[in-house]
Amino acid sequence: MQSKTIVNLYPEIDILLDEPLSKYTHTLTGGPADILAFPKSIKECQDLLDYANDHSLPVTVVGNASNLIVKDGGIRGLTMILTKMNKITSHENLVVADAGAALIDVTKAAQANSLTGVEFAAGIPGSVGGAVYMNAGAYGGEIENVVVGAEVLTPDNHIIHLDHEQLDFGYRHCSVQENHQIVISATFSLETGIAEKIQKQMDHLNALRASKQPLDLPSCGSVFKRPKGYFAGKLIHDSGLQGFQIGGAQVSLKHAGFIVNVDGATATDYLKVIAHVQQTVFNKFGVHLETEVRIIGEGPKSN
Predict the structure, then answer these.
(1) CB atoms within 10 A of CB 16
(2) To the nearest whole percent, how much of the chain has pLDDT over 90?
(3) Does residue 1 carry a pLDDT above 60?
(4) Beta bridge pairs of residue 68
(5) How are beta strands 32-38 and 75-81 bridged, if at all?
(6) Over the stretch 76-99, which tens digit does the pLDDT of each residue have?
(7) Could you give phi then psi for residue 97, rounded to 5 degrees?
(8) What are 125-138's pLDDT values in tens digits?
(9) CA 19, CA 269: separation in Å to the nearest integer?
(10) Contact (Cβ atoms closer than 8 angstroms) between residue 65 and residue 58
(11) Across-strand partners of 291?
(12) pLDDT, tens digit, for every residue of 207-240?
């Protein structure tokens, strides 16, 4: 009954009930969200969070669902996808982007304003909020190098500003993770550059990504963190695991650090492949591969 109440209470917010998250994840897997909402503003986020707090509902926030696995049992309570909060503005050397804005669009906005420093993210398919949350990085660059601050929503529904130091960036880490905060927007500080050179670098990195990564198949991006002193993809390749498959989930033949959906995979297929890769690599090299991909939700219900 709570589900129908929230729909009636906030008719201006797009809210779906019992919605399969496989429609939104880049793996095309994932069970249903009890309540799935698409807020368009900070106020709508706060209204939804108030409702969840008043009704003791757990809250899950999703960006572009690109580096994410949602388990087949789905997500209980309230899930918010922030992709409708996607405004990007620029002033002098600063670019300010809403959490739901595509990181790729931030790189395009920077290039259009002759601002350099974020080219490394030209092909990262995530949202700004997810990129800050995970301190996303590629080709030698990381979000911590360009983000100077963020507006976040606290669990008790207050908007606060976190500066670079308070964000406490680390490898695939940011303080909002343990503080259960919701990134609302982020400010990027960039340098003045030459638009043509910036575009050339972005094109180069995108071509490099296309040549090495399985962009033609559904995936959750890079699955594992880089172990100290090693490369996850090489360890997996050297373990003879490329092409290993359970159900429809397969260790990519193009890049061993990716698991691709080749034939109607489920999230459970993905998790089984991940576990097998971790065990095999540990047995062979004594290295434990930690997952970089965010894994959320509940397992499938047993019959």
Answers:
(1) 17
(2) 96
(3) no
(4) 294
(5) parallel
(6) 999 999 999 999 999 999 999 999
(7) -130, 135
(8) 999 999 999 999 99
(9) 21
(10) no
(11) 224
(12) 999 999 999 999 999 999 999 999 999 999 999 9
Tokens of 21: 């998250």
- Three-state SS annotation for the chain: CHHHHHHHHCCCCEEEEEEEHHHCCCCCCCCEEEEEEECCCHHHHHHHHHHHHHCCCCEEEECCCCCEEECCCEEEEEEEECCCCCCEEEECCEEEEECCCEHHHHHHHHHHCCEECCHHHCCCCCEHHHHHHHCCEECCEEHHHCEEEEEEECCCCCEEEEEHHHHCCECCECCHHHHCCEEEEEEEECEECCHHHHHHHHHHHHHHHHHHCCCCCCEEEECECCCCCCCHHHHHHHCCCCCCEECCEEECCCCCCEEEECCCCCHHHHHHHHHHHHHHHHHHHCCCCCECCEEECECCCCC
pLDDT of residue 142: 96
Neighbour tally for 14: CB within 10 Å: 15
Taking the CB of residue 210, how many other CB atoms lie within 10 A of it?
12
Instruction: Say whether pTM exceeds 0.85.
Output: yes
Rg (CA), the chain: 20
CB-count exposure of residue 193 (10 Å: 0-12, 13-18, 19+): middle
Active site residues: 172, 222, 292
At position 199, the amino acid (one-letter code) is Q
